[in-house]
Amino acid sequence: MQFLSDNAARVHPKVWAAMQAADAPDKPYDNDALSQRLDAAFSGLFARDVAALWVSSGTAANSLALTTLVQPHGGVICHREAHIEMDECGAPGFYTHGAKLLLAEGAGAKLTADAIGAVLGGITRGVHQVPAQAISITQASEYGLTYAAAELGAIGTLAKERGLGLHMDGARFANAVASLGCPPAEAAGPVDVLSFGCTKNGGMDADALVLFDPAQADLVRWRRKRGGHLQSKGRFLAAQVLALIDGDLWLDNARAANAAAAEIAAGAKDRLLYPVEANEVFVRLAAPERAALRAQGFQFYDWDDTTARMVAAWDTPQDHAVALGKAIAGL
Amino acid sequence: MQFLSDNAARVHPKVWAAMQAADAPDKPYDNDALSQRLDAAFSGLFARDVAALWVSSGTAANSLALTTLVQPHGGVICHREAHIEMDECGAPGFYTHGAKLLLAEGAGAKLTADAIGAVLGGITRGVHQVPAQAISITQASEYGLTYAAAELGAIGTLAKERGLGLHMDGARFANAVASLGCPPAEAAGPVDVLSFGCTKNGGMDADALVLFDPAQADLVRWRRKRGGHLQSKGRFLAAQVLALIDGDLWLDNARAANAAAAEIAAGAKDRLLYPVEANEVFVRLAAPERAALRAQGFQFYDWDDTTARMVAAWDTPQDHAVALGKAIAGL
Amino acid sequence: MQFLSDNAARVHPKVWAAMQAADAPDKPYDNDALSQRLDAAFSGLFARDVAALWVSSGTAANSLALTTLVQPHGGVICHREAHIEMDECGAPGFYTHGAKLLLAEGAGAKLTADAIGAVLGGITRGVHQVPAQAISITQASEYGLTYAAAELGAIGTLAKERGLGLHMDGARFANAVASLGCPPAEAAGPVDVLSFGCTKNGGMDADALVLFDPAQADLVRWRRKRGGHLQSKGRFLAAQVLALIDGDLWLDNARAANAAAAEIAAGAKDRLLYPVEANEVFVRLAAPERAALRAQGFQFYDWDDTTARMVAAWDTPQDHAVALGKAIAGL
Amino acid sequence: MQFLSDNAARVHPKVWAAMQAADAPDKPYDNDALSQRLDAAFSGLFARDVAALWVSSGTAANSLALTTLVQPHGGVICHREAHIEMDECGAPGFYTHGAKLLLAEGAGAKLTADAIGAVLGGITRGVHQVPAQAISITQASEYGLTYAAAELGAIGTLAKERGLGLHMDGARFANAVASLGCPPAEAAGPVDVLSFGCTKNGGMDADALVLFDPAQADLVRWRRKRGGHLQSKGRFLAAQVLALIDGDLWLDNARAANAAAAEIAAGAKDRLLYPVEANEVFVRLAAPERAALRAQGFQFYDWDDTTARMVAAWDTPQDHAVALGKAIAGL
To answer: What residues of chain A, 128 to 147, have a C-beta less than 8 Å from chain C?
Structure first.
């Protein structure tokens, strides 16, 4: 019973079908018919004109996104535990040619306007310090917490006042939207560019970059090619993304994952590090307790010495989740 | 009848089957069982200990390869028409943090020890000039020509004498090996690192980087992650590469493509820009002649004002190739 | 008798005096009174509002200049023998984070609109090629040739039509202005940013970057600091630059150097590789002829197997120049 | 009475004299006789074979130093308030092509082996995190504290055990040596590369980079040129550095500055944020107290809301320092 990562999940059958349907000669790179449909598909999803490009990893999506918001000598305010700071081996700095991550505090890896303001307040020495040029937040956060519309609005207002771009790492955007029960546009709020995750949510190796200012798309196209991410048979990535969008499969998958996480949470109760608002569950467990769960066949990740992380995916069997919840409750 | 690019070709059924067999939960990134098999598979292929990593594009493969051979202030000698110079939008410079491509001359986009020596001879002013640190050659070349063992040996000797690393862009390495009829190790010659193409040869979105000095693999692993190329479900890329290696499918596919190209060449005769040694055919054709061929249903690429490029792939129907050869002969 | 380089020349007494006058406590970096005077001094010189910043080398000036005109994925059209291509060890690529130099042809290291157009004509493959975003020319050129107003105008028109920025490497701008006998603004023509050389012309270690769009100055200030070029006692660099501007010392110095070069040219006659329009003289000399001159006490640089380069400076004794001219004539 | 910064101090008369003595034609760049003497001068100073190069700023010195110790994907452990983190606008990341500063804690901006170990302990996720490759410490620290031999030894032992390079930012190394009263080699301890400050200590615009592994010098020479820091009249920078070394002028100057700081400290007593071990004095002062001091003619820098920074230089008049000490005592 596997709760290690949603990266370990399978590819959804409809995604497989879409990929196989794409297996006919077409123009290379992103000149094929499917890639050309992405802008329209995401414009429909967000009810406004956007540009959308496929990329093959969330790290690439985040890094390319930041190139549209920050110069090499600038800085990006993000949470101390943001994925771009902790888990991407400096990729954002690589793609932005050195822009610095300026670390803010906040419970559950969420930023607030106040926390962002505290970072801004420390930048006072002109050319001797890296100037903040953008903010990056994660929806749902690295601890599985969602940003509500009002929270996004406050951050957006600050960003606008201070002339800062706003990026959202949406590796689990689907889980956030499913949890919030709002339109996608509301869950994205006032962001300029969104990394829209698909791989963890039933895809194989495709995510999407959604640019709410379509004029930035050309810049990303050059940088994507320069990063070696313009795959020659891009139609297969477009097919995955479109299959997830079509008929709201992305939301169905996310709801299934969230539901499984809720089962675990129901058993973990007071052991929860944070409320479970998406598909990740952080549970306080002593080492012997973890060993006991593993002895019962549950696989999960040690977050730190006192906490285990359990992640549900679109294909997590509901009975596995129920069993894990019960097992925790029974410790 | 499509001869635009081998990028436009389909994915081989055995590759599809291998990908679907990989669709079960396994460890993420490259910790899965399939990814762990790559070193052994390529060590067998080249009859020596090598390290091999999957990447999702040839541009990424070439760029990551060069990071093992050149420092940011160094230079890479390559042909004026090399893919890394002409078609990768500066990606090699991006990944190497500025290493310069030092351009050499040579018929058919092939380098010789003499042409490399001419570039080296112009580097005389110490710290004021970018120092050459590596050489990059393409097997088969951008005009579809192969390097024989003696040619590679001469380049390797020069590289060793001058302390230069040696990279081979093998986007069509399979076609070269099939054409040369030699063991893969002989077609790679004395290179330090090889970009081993799969995508054009029946794969979907996977190439391999083969490091003949396995000690360099760790560096590439860091840089691959930093470039956003460490896909979380890497098992699907490993599956593609392994499917092509298993049972020499890669060579069967290349032989089929080469045979189709030979049919076209047989009709083009004196119109050929270069002998056809792999799966690309460059044919001198005036504009009205090209229009006539297109009117007969043949699709191909205008290389320049006087030359058309026709590329055969593993799935090019033999009767299409025969028809194109005859159509050219009949002009 | 030294004709190796104007880099080997002495510091002008008025520059020394200005530096010593600056040796009192003042605000650090470029907040001192002298640094604050640069904008006005150069605005006066060019009869329009410009921003001007000191830098400590021509390579830094050129590299920082290009950061205002080109993005990391872009290209700069320059001559195949431009200083930025041949003599700066990749510094422009370092500062621009990888922008590529796109090499054009032209006699005497001068560009023409046609030569630039030929480079542009080869850029046809969209995102697969580095797009041209700027042009860089050298006034006087690397062979000591000047651009007249009409030549600059033609290049400027092309730049405007194609949306390209225009940079001028003016390491010997003083010598060009002295030679052309025109206002500085005319010798700069339609450029966006000018590297204004001082070190070769009586300074110690200061050049100036002149931004004809003052709005770009902030970007350069950040990048200058980030490059380690914001010296803490910047008042000494400002003092040098201002001393050369005050009373047109820069032109007096350049005229002296040009006059010395003219003496050499008068003796070299048909041996001249190019007309002598500034302070550099390129003379066809066989190896024994060079040896003969050296035996007479003349020091100069071997440009290549058949050509010697002799450079006059502001402090070249006129009798040394006359003697060299006669010695060449007497070979 | 000026205590703003040692950057605001004057150039020592012996440094002026040395620069003027250097004002004769010599070979350009660092091929002149003075630049060639640096290795020997510093080898004498440190009683072992070292290589030494001039640079024109401390930021350049630090950044170039780090290029010898860390790869673009690596990290440098430094204090949260280190100059390289706080005051250099990302220059270290620029020169190292993205290496990340990994921030450690410690009183008075000093690192300990334990604090470094805490950072290392957080790096556990392989290729997903930036690996630590070097440590950077500041002698004297950003709060004017010195590292004793035993402290350096403990850090050096850890560095060796973990395969980390060790850099020392010695912008005020002279003040530290004067304070410690030990040989320079002991104050440098086990470092691999030292930024040896001169500009703040009587120089004009020259610092030195001291490489305890001389084999690294070539790399720095290339990178220095590539950074635009290879000044064409380098003899003037070499002259400054040599003038300070000759006859231990550097130590005389530092002792004078330290003595002036001690006078201020004597008056500040319990208001001191840290013991005064070099030439910087951090004094707790309320806003009205600062205003009172300024009304008496003292200039200094507001470090933060509760602390003022006063810096003495080689040329601080002793009576000014005494007066400031008394004024603080009299508050």
So the answer is: 128, 131
